[in-house]
Amino acid sequence: MNVHDSERLSGLLEDAGYLKASEGTQADVVVFNTCAVRENADNKLYGNLSHLAPIKEANPDLQIAVGGCLAQKDRATITEKAPYVDVVFGTHNIGSLPVLLERARVQEEAQVEILESLEVFPSTLPTKRESAYAAWVSVSVGCNNTCTFCIVPSLRGKEKDRRPGEILAEIEALVAEGVSEVTLLGQNVNAYGVEFGDRQAFSKLLRACGEIEGLERVRFTSPHPAEFTDDVIEAMAETPNVMPSLHMPLQSGSDRVLKAMRRSYRSTKFLGIIDRVRAAIPHAAITTDIIVGFPGETEEDFQATLDVVRESRFSSAFTFQYSKRPGTPAADLPDQISPEVVKDRYGRLVDLVNEIAYDENKKNVGRTLELLVAEGEGRKDSSTNRLSGRAPDNRLVHFDAAGVEGVRPGDMVKVEITRAAPHYLIADNPVLEVRRTRSGDAWEARQGQTEPETRSVGLGMPSVGVPAPLPAAPACG
Ligand code: SF4
Fold first, then answer.
1. Which domains does the chain have, with CATH numbers?
2. pTM listed for this prediction
3. Residue 64 class from Cβ within 10 Å (0-12 exposed, 13-18 middle, 19+ buried)?
4. Which of 34, 134, 283, 398 is the most exposed place for a label (fewest CB within 10 A)?
5. How close is the Cα of 145 to the center of ligand 1, in Å?
């Protein structure tokens, strides 16, 4: 959600005449788009701001803006702690950034503007997409749940749904530009439709995506187990371009802890969904988020989490050591677990998750898979002559690119999997088939683009990158 917001900020600023600063040059404007779901967001922000203080002192024309969840939460204190910040804006008014920068420049004083609720759905804002072939598409923002560890409801507000026609029009426009994969994005996609009274709106949306010609891959993140209904499983199984992957946050396998987290499902329900998904989509890769060391978690509760992990056979999991988020109900709960215990449990959980992920990955050796060639996902690409791509189930595959010069991010290749590792697969035999796509053309067209000279902008945090097919942090739900 935060990365997609950064794409919107880039689009807005480009629309207002700014240009992305090139590497090694000094930007005229630096924007920090903060995420309070992550640990230590405030320390990281103030650390980054303090690095800019001497640069600002030497160049008073430099403008610094801070937005996102932390700005929404800390608002006035940001300009108290870092008085050289020019603009503070919240999650509900990212569209105001160009105006606030201009006003700060003209009035020569800091502008702090935080709205309490969303007035314009941010998808109507101009967006500068980082990837030519894959795109995030918001279906909703905000969340009506009240998980006790989560800061999202107080910062992003109640759920707001976009109308299906608007979402589908955005996807069609993206496909016309060359995008072949979209990830539908919402804090709780299964609740989509609650605002306009259609409980099956999300499964209908998936099926409607299946009708869009040229759209090769549809993913979504994240569903909430409590609201997961069978019509979504049926739509996934019966819509060929909806990919066989599911990211469904478990958080804990202990019913007692789930209750304390105010997660309104129990482990039996979670496992039931997984059984039905596997029955309908046998090759589905299922991933999850798990928090270890929630206040009051006993060794028995932790064992219940390990039991669910064993039974669910996740192909990967984002695992987190619980840490307090000021402003959340769980931050004030008694029985906070000592860091040593949390660390020990975390280590045992990660070992189990990795062992299962490795076993599950090994089952893919010998299979032929079609990959969407990815940009920037394989760190060892240049040294090994491998390229990387994503399988339909979202597994990362590094493949031998010898003999397929000219294959571009966004193209499709068929490969045979020769080896597995806990976090990726290897395909070291020659590529079986290359399919050049319109996405590859779109990627190539971008490489030659030049841009007009104007004021330059740098996005400070987080890094703005290609939509990661797997969420980079608890994506909620
Ligand atoms: S964890 Fe997800 S479902 Fe729970 S309150 Fe946060 S955003 Fe909503």
1. 2-118+454-461 (3.40.50.12160), 122-362 (3.80.30.20), 368-431 (2.40.50)
2. 0.87
3. buried
4. 283
5. 6
